[in-house]
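Hi everyone,

Forwarding the result from last night's run.
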Amino acid sequence: MKLVLFSLLIFFWAMLVDAQPGDRRIDEEETYWKHQDIRKALENKDNKSWMRYRTLRRTERAKNKCVYAEVNKQKTGENVYEFVQRYRKEDGTIEEETLLASPY
């Protein structure tokens, strides 16, 4: 129980550290709610998404640039999407990770 509580505290603390007083995120803006359909985004014909505000700050990865994700495919018969996240490191090399997403 203590570990769960500690993990939750760390999670909320990290969110608070990244936010600024009075800062209103785009996903909190009521007029933007109608545009937040993850399934529609995953099934979009333009399968590459640039992540302008991707959290790569305040770590050794802070110097990474050009973070984007590319949806490759939906697994047949499943509600699971495979996508690749790529970013350019400070030395110019490109890192790539294959990830899975399952919208609920």
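DSSP finds two helices and four strands in the chain.

Cheers,
N.
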